[in-house]
Specification:
Blueprint (H helix, E strand, L loop, with lengths): L2 E7 L2 H6 L3 E6 L2 H11 L4 H9 L1 E4 L2 E2 L15 E5 L8
């Protein structure tokens, strides 16, 4: 069942999204990011920037876990951090 929460974008991710935060309704991080990409198709840098970001879900680093294995919680928060803040390649 999908959960509702907030995605927060920082630095380059915020600039690419054009917003500081937005809501999600998704069961996994992969679903939330897919929805965000679809929401920002008019911003070509957004999808590219996401590929280089790291993520915190409810304060816990996602690291190398597959995004479709990261469950989201009701009222949770996904932080999208650009590479300078510890993102991967």
């Amino acid at each position: 069942m999908p959960a509702q929460g907030t995605i927060r974008y920082w630095a380059a991710a915020k600039a690419a999204a054009g917003v500081a935060e937005e809501s999600y309704e998704a069961a996994t991080l992969a679903e939330a990011l897919d929805t965000a990409r679809a929401r920002h198709t008019e911003r070509p840098d957004f999808a590219r920037v996401l590929l280089r970001c790291s993520f915190l879900v409810d304060g816990d680093p996602v690291g190398t876990r597959p995004h479709d294995a990261v469950r989201l919680t009701e009222g949770g928060t996904v932080e999208v951090l650009p590479p300078f803040a510890g993102g991967s390649r």
